[in-house]
Write a structure and sequence with these properties.
heterodimer, A: mainly alpha, Glycosyltransferase, 48% helix, globular, B: mainly alpha, Serine Threonine Protein Phosphatase 5, Tetratricopeptide repeat, elongated
Amino acid sequence: MRWRTALLAGLLALLMPMAAGADEQGGSVNAREWDQYKARFLDSGGRIIDDANGNVSHSEGQGYGLLLAVLAENPADFALIWSFTRRELLLRDDGLAAWKWSPAETPHIIDINNATDGDILIAYALVLAGERWKREDYSQAASRIAKAILDNTLLDHGGRTLLLPGVSGFRATDRPDGPVVNPSYWIFEAFPALDRVAPSPRWKKLSDDGLALLNTAQSGPRKLPADWVSLRTMPKPAQGFPAEFGYNALRIPLYLARADMGGRELMARLREGMKGDDDALVLSDVSTGAAEASLTDPGYRFVNHILACVLDRVPIPDSVKVFSPTQYYPSTLHLLGLSYVREKRPECL
Amino acid sequence: MKSSIVAIAAVMTTAIGVAGLTDGGFLRQDNRKLGSLTGESQDTPAAAGLAGEGARGAPPQFTEVAQADRPSDEARSASKPQPVVDESALRYFAAKGDTARLQAEISRLRSLYPDWVPPADPLAVPRNTDVALETMWRLYSEGRYAEVRKAIAERQAKEAAWQPPSDLLERLNVAEARARLVNASELKQYETVISAAASTPSLLTCSEVDVLWHVANAFAQTKRPERARDAYLYVLKNCENPPERLATVQKAAAVLPYATLQDLLSYERTTPEGVPEFESIRDDLARRFVAEGDGDKTLAVDPKYVQRVEKLAETGGTASDALLLGWYQLRRDNMSAAEQWFQRAHDREDSASAAQGLALTLIARKAPAEAEGVLYRWRDSSPDALATYFAATANLLAIDPPLALDAAVLARIAAETTKAREPATAQQFGWYARALNQPATAAQWFATALRWKPDDEPSAYGLALSRDQLGDKDGVVEIQRLWSGRSERIARLGEVKELVDDVNRVQQPIAEAQRTRPQATTGTAVVTEPAEQPVAQRPRVTGSAQKAVRTGAGCRTTINPAGMAPQAALARGWCLMDLNRPLEAAEAFEVALQAQASQIREDAAYGQSLAYLRAGLTNKAAVAATKSTQSRGRVDELQTAILADRAIAAFNAKRYREAILFLDQLGQISTRRQDLMVLRGYAYMNLKYHAEARRIFEALAATGNRDAMQGLAAVESSQEIWPNKN
């Protein structure tokens, strides 16, 4: 029941041509913001550039780019990014995207493994684009990727349906502490959409179990999930990765809010664990709770503002209402956050 | 609030739905047209001999490859009057002065629209007046396909009624599919290659021969050689471009087997000058086929190819052709022919391969001394060469009666053997020394061989024989203990000797020295001397001697122990164990287990457990161990042996997790044996628990354990890559 409501709400929000707050041309990401984002992170050939990581591209970035193009109501840029994505990344035999593309290497793909959040984002954006612009080809591509996600990246473990971060390297047979998952790869808002193009009860189960995971994966004094979590026994930080609430996990509250999921208790716990002075976003060691970084980029701070808005209806400060691109990752989160508030939390603007 | 959103959304959905239907209708119609385009062009193969883009035959008949829908004749006639011919591509190429593409476009349009009359002066056709469309064609011709997509969508957003020319869409689809197919091929994603080709059949034409090559290769790489052959055959049957036809055969020759290639070659044409078109690569094909014959001795290569290479070897005079023939003949056991070719290659240009081949033929004709001499300088050129060298040395030393070898040669062989820690030659040094009646030297070599290869039973046997000859009884017993349950002839050494001594003491050691021919690895297959009975490796116990053993005193008589008293059965069990007859011993212990006295039962259970362990029946041993209470020491001994056996068995069966479980249990009762720790390291490694494996190997390697060092190197070479965000 709850599922249906969430689904309907997400769909409705996306169908609204112009929500409160979007006072310029475009969608819930306005044309000016999208232009600024594009100018910095989208090259003329349809590639989203991760400027903090040697200007490589990855399936996640292409997925974000496609999603933002939908939110910006820009079918032309969507077509551009999709053309690149399909031609350059969507090459794997199993129908998933190779995760990493480098301009400096030949062939450009430097790791054929997939990154499942990238696949989810791409498929999700394709579902929305197919529905919004009535493009059967987009819907069909979405359906193919969604089926490949179901077939290759879902793992039943201990009664739970989990998301493998990649097809290779994370199963119980691959690592002594496997299976290892990344809670921030659960892009909750996408699952109902993927269910529309590749119907399966497993999407709902995956979503429920992802939420259950967030309710149990509480490490250290701050009770935060690690970026990479071993589910061999009790959830705990995975070996070989920094045991931290880091750049991956910080987007979890944003994803939860966008999907209208999470519940007050979970959101409050996350807020408590990651809030720093001046709304900075604190990354921390999940064993000791020690702060490791205090992120002040408005894109990161925006995650804290959303939590404050969702939990206490605290208005978003004016300083972050205006988007100005910084780096690929925080800027992406910033636009996703702005879009969310305009669509669903206009009272906080 | 909520309900008003629903209402607005519903209206929006309807609006988009209507607009979308129109759009979808266009796409469907367009798709049909594109399908007919492919279909029609198929009907006019090779458009009047025009090479390039106009020349299209029927696409290859792969099962996986979907054919474009071909409209029936009725459908086509019904579609008259002809649609307006889209000349925008023509205009674009004309404006660019690109005459090749212009000609191709004209022939394409002609085949598409037979009634269409091309402009008298194609270069004079007016430019496209549609500037935006002109830009799209420019982007397309520059390979900027994503930007064409963007431009189309942009224009459609501005002009709702505007439709891109179907020709542009078709070309764009094909170009994108082609780029994606090539990308997938480079990444060895062959299923993607095949599915991309299947969904874009218009790619599979003579104008895109390299795409056909990629697809053919994808089939070959995914073990579908018939499909691969079909794709290459398509080119040979339909496509005209001579260099491409030639390259097709070359590419096929790289991935397809000999027999399949003969199919392809049957489509060879003759040029107007009367020359077979693949003549220029015929020599290379012949070499390629003979080389395939080098690897596969059952392959019957047409003699015309072998003769061709022979002629090349004789006239051209490169060593490599002679080498090919040498290996080809060697594989077919044509040793004298092989030797002749290797000798020729060797004379022309001494090389590791020539020396190795020559050495093999020399070994085969029982000239190992020459073989050693030929190969000595090349011994370190490759693992194969070294293996052959040691095959030569082992054979040289094994010659019966022993050759008097030059001291310098013996010294260098010994030095190489020691350097490479080569057990087979070390063992033969042992037999050689024994044959020359130098038992102390023999014992040293056998012991050395055992150090390098602890499970080398012949060396253990040789060592036992030598110690026996030297009167070292304790030494013999030591070996018998170590090899109990693993070698009948070592266990029986004492008994046999009594009998053999009666026969012929002198001949015995020579008879033992039956040569185990080291088998060289890939590519070198050492030829063994014909039919030496493998049984001869065992002590020469004749039928009557065998009988004499059995009818001897103690437990040598075979009887059913069932009726025996427990105490007697227990004694018989131990006696049978001493004779290394563990299964019979187990039966005797079973009888002893019926005893009233707990001490006898305990001993019997212990004995039975040991008996089953020696017979390799670990599970039965485990059961037997529980048949009576045991002292702590015995329990640990049995458990250690049982668990170690189980761990090794599990490992060998690739059940690594299980092996680790047994090793864990073992760790609780016994100090850790290094060999089992190495086993644990490999078990982790095979489970891809690289960190654990590394930790174990590192700790062991620090103590100088060579196996652990190798394990460490193996872990190093395996790697794990994962996307880490930062």
